[in-house]
Design a protein that fits this description.
Layout (H helix, E strand, L loop, with lengths): L1 H4 L6 H19 L5 E6 L5 E5 L16 H7 L3 H5 L15 H6 L1 E10 L2 E8 L2 E2 L4 E5 L4 E8 L12 H14 L4 E6 L4 E5 L5 H8 L11 E7 L2 E7 L12 E2 L2 E2 L5 H20 L8
Parallel strand pairs: 1-8
Antiparallel strand pairs: 1-2, 2-7, 3-4, 3-7, 4-5, 4-6, 8-9, 10-11, 12-13
Helix pairs in contact: 2-6
Bound molecules: 3-[3-(1H-pyrrolo[2,3-b]pyridin-5-yl)phenyl]propanoic acid.
3-[3-(1H-pyrrolo[2,3-b]pyridin-5-yl)phenyl]propanoic acid binds next to α2 and α4.
Length: 285
């Protein structure tokens, strides 16, 4: 478990399970097929992640003789292989996929709405306990995964934190402009909806909500170079405390990295060059 999801005793691994399932739905949104993701924390500490994407494919795999969905749920890294878009951007558990969550759940229910029907399969500790069953006809599309973390693996912190899940979902909503993400905690009926049309520019506006800003408009831009896309939003305020956060593939980089160092250097150099060129740094200023 440590290899795939991190610490099983302090809650980080536990919450990673939820983030990995959400990351699959976010990928579906990034591929342009999903607009809503709903997360529910149930009273028994199971979690449901439901999206309105295309649904995990239910067709038989020609050689494995199993439905694609079952392979996605039981084979490490299988998810990406069925996705023709090959669009794995949102980072969950280092990309091992939802099969790791399945293996670490004492039970998991997969529901799919696709190809005109609802479908369902149940698993215990990663092993199917039912066939993928075809249920009632539907015109809906999407996927829902409900999982219960295995109590023989997760110790000490075994309850999901509404704040910890909510904080991450809020970040994901900022980073995926227009994607609606909701969280509902059935233990206390708390709920929140996150949807930000303005992307990270709105993130910065909200970060500065309690500060006096020096310029009203957030400076925001997006650029691509050699297949790498960079999104930047900046706004100065009157405080002396810099708040700089960076993400790579929607994962927060708590310890920064070369991209943060490089950004800082380029920003300082650019402002210095401008100030020098326009003689803003003279002794009169
Ligand atoms: C493989 C292929 C396709 C979709 C997905 C996986 C998929 C996975 C997850 C996991 C959570 N929600 C998801 N939604 C979709 C697309 C196959 C196609 O229709 O072309």
């Amino acid at each position: 478990p440590g290899m795939y999801i991190g610490d099983t005793d302090d809650g980080t691994g536990l919450h990673h399970l939820g983030f990995e399932v959400v990351a699959n739905s976010v990928d579906e949104a990034l591929a342009g097929h999903c607009t809503h993701i709903e997360v529910v924390i149930h009273v028994d500490n199971s979690v449901t992640v439901k999206d309105n994407g295309r649904g995990i494919p239910v067709g038989m795999h020609p050689t494995e003789k199993k439905p694609a969905a079952e392979l996605v749920m039981t084979v490490l890294h299988a998810g990406g292989k069925f996705n023709q878009d090959n669009y794995k951007v949102s980072g969950g558990l280092h990309g091992v996929g939802v099969s790791a969550v399945n293996a670490l759940s004492d039970w998991l229910r997969l529901e799919i709405w696709r190809d005109g029907y609802a479908w369902e399969q149940e698993y215990a500790r990663g092993i199917p306990v039912t066939e993928l069953k075809r249920l009632a006809p539907t015109t809906e599309r999407g996927t829902a995964v409900t999982f219960h973390p295995d109590p023989t693996i997760f110790k000490n912190v075994i309850a999901f934190s509404y704040e910890q899940l909510g904080q991450k979902l809020r970040e994901l909503a900022y980073l995926n402009s227009g994607l609606a993400i909701s969280i509902h905690d059935e233990r206390n009926d708390k709920r929140q909806d996150f949807v930000y049309e303005g992307g990270i520019a709105t993130f910065v506006t909200d970060m500065n909500a309690t500060n006096t800003v020096i310029h009203p408009d957030v400076i925001a831009f997006c650029a691509e170079h050699e297949g790498v896309t960079v999104d930047v939003a900046l706004q100065w305020n009157e405080s002396y405390n810099e708040q700089l956060v960076c993400f790579t593939n929607t994962i927060k980089n708590r310890d920064g990295g070369t991209h943060l160092t490089g950004f800082r250097q380029a920003l300082t150099r650019t402002i210095n060059n401008y100030a020098t060129e326009f003689k803003l740094l003279g002794k009169d200023n």
